[in-house]
Amino acid sequence: MKTARIIVTIIVLMTGLLKQTDAQRLPPPLPKMAPAPLVEDIVLLKKILEANHPSLYWYTSKDSIDYYFNETMAGITDSLNEMEYKNRLSKLVAHIKCGHTTVRFSKAYGKVAAMYRYPQFPLALKVWDDSLVVLGSAYRNDSIFKRGTIVTAINQRRPAQLLDTMYQYISTDGYGVNHKSQIISGNFPGWYKTILGDADSIYTIRYIDSTGVEKETMLKAYKPVVDTSRQGRQETRGQRLTRREIRKLNLLNKRSMVIDTAAGTAFIRLTTFTGGRLKSFFRRSFKTLSKLSIQNLVIDLRENGGGNVSNSIRLTQYLADQPFKVGDTVAAISRKFEYGRYIKPTLIYWLAMNFGARKEADGRIHYRRYERHYYAPKQNNHFNGKVYLIQGGYTFSAATMFIAQLQGQPNVKVLGEETGGGYYGNSAMHIPKITLPNSGIVVSLPMYRLVMDKERPRGRGIMPDVMIKPSSQAIREGYDIKIKEVRKMIGQ
User: Fold this and answer.
1) pTM of the predicted model as reported, rounded to 2 decimal places
2) CA 480 to chain centre
3) pLDDT for res 229
4) DSSP assignment, residue 379?
5) S-S: 370 plus which of 303, 326, 378, 422, CB 3.0-4.6 Å?
6) Euclidean distance between the first and the last CA atom of the chain, given in angstroms as a whole number
């Protein structure tokens, strides 16, 4: 009996030590912030938006905006951690329906964010309409959730219910949801954790199996095993790229061109209008197209979130068949920064708005060059063949401006899904950042309202000429359904 008691005591002690060790691996809980300073931040945010945001009441009335602010402040009756507080601000700001007005974590949270990434939902999912389709599983040997598997429920929540909840926390232009679905598709586990929490260590998932039957199974939350061996670190060092290789990859990630001479077709992938030495890239590319007598040009803008307007204008000049201007109205409500100590940067934008724009009779600050100047099409190496523009929910801002200028031109066809950026206009141009003093939360602040064409319908993105939605079959078989359709159209 004495020996048995000793063995039991040793087991209890070892179990306690193991639990303690496991607890030490978990990150400390996020610190809580008292209600009063959090409410003060919201009061300040409202004042700044009222003073500077050009489209605060564009889609949502002042009475409604006031109501949402008051409701959010009244709901903060207890201490919150930063994730909880950011969620409330994100839901509040989303009511403005401006894709350039977004909420980000504080700089301090960014330094420790990796600690809180896991555990998380173990499946990467593609989201659209009321569909959830598996892109991949965190578990390498997952025999059930293979690429292309359709998920019909997570913890008893059907896709429509789940997505309706998640969409409330994401800002976009107007009333469209395609941008929101693309954003969630980019990191479904991250959004699920941020919005719905990670209290579930096991998920109940319903899915359609290979025979078309709906089934249910359980899946554990994923937490990677940390490699602490020297071998793992040595392998990583051996794969390190040179600076030149990194620069080259960065450029290719922003823009690239592939030419299929047999089909007389060029494919340009453009993920941004900022950086990437784009003007020289455009010049070289269109010179090559002219030299090779390419008749079909496909420009893929599905990943293009916008950027420098002058680069967007330059590309348009190579394709437009008539002079064009940026917009009917490009105006700010103020060029003063009353709360400048919370907004960075301000000097560069203050200079641009005081020396590059002027106050008009309507009391707003207009950037007249974009309102009045017509840009002529390029004569040298202008492309006159057939143009196919592929767009999607990520297509935003300057990319939307580019497509909107060309849609309807006889040789241009727009394919894909609705853009995230507004067809009528957006609020952008100058976008400094607000840092709320108590929480450190960052909110982007667009300064100009751009109305591209006052005759267009307001509230949605650009609708494609040919709608091509995602497909579970295409995901399962691993082909790009939009590129496949474009090739078919060119072949016909």
Assistant:
1) 0.89
2) 20
3) 59
4) S
5) 326
6) 87
* CATH fold label, 244-491: 2-enoyl-CoA Hydratase; Chain A, domain 1 (3.90.226)
What pLDDT, in 10s, does the model give residues 300-337? 999 999 999 999 999 999 999 999 999 999 999 999 99
What is the number of alpha carbons within 13 Å of residue 235 lying toward its C-beta? 6
Q: What average pLDDT does range 344-355 have in this prediction?
A: 90
Nearest to 400 by CA among 420, 371, 372, 383: 420
Domain definitions of the chain by residue range:
33-107, 117-220, 244-491
Separation in Å, CA 19 to CA 8, 39, 155, 341: 16, 39, 28, 47
Q: The tokens of 150 are what?
A: 């359709």
Report d(CA 485, CA 295) in Å as an integer.
Answer: 17
- CATH, domain range 117-220: 2.30.42.10
Q: What is the pLDDT of residues 380-425, one digit of tens each?
A: 999 999 999 999 999 999 999 999 999 999 999 999 999 999 999 9
The CA-based angle 167-169-171, given to 5 degrees, is: 85
Spatial separation of the C-alpha atoms in residues 405 and 313, rounded to whole Å: 10
Mention every residue, 6+ apart, whose C-beta is less than 8 A from residue 189: 120, 121, 122, 123, 124, 138, 222
Written as one string, the DSSP assignment of 168-234 is: TT---STT--HHHHHHHHHTHHHHHHHHH-S--SEEEEEEE-TTS-EEEEEEEPB-PPP--SHHHHH
**What is the C-alpha to C-alpha distance for residues 89 and 424, in angstroms, rounded to an integer?**
26
Long-range contacts of 112-120 (CB under 8 A, 24+ apart): 112/27, 115/27, 116/27, 116/30, 116/83, 117/190, 117/193, 118/221, 118/222, 118/223, 118/224, 119/198, 119/201, 119/221, 119/222, 119/223, 120/189, 120/190, 120/192, 120/193, 120/198, 120/221, 120/222, 120/223
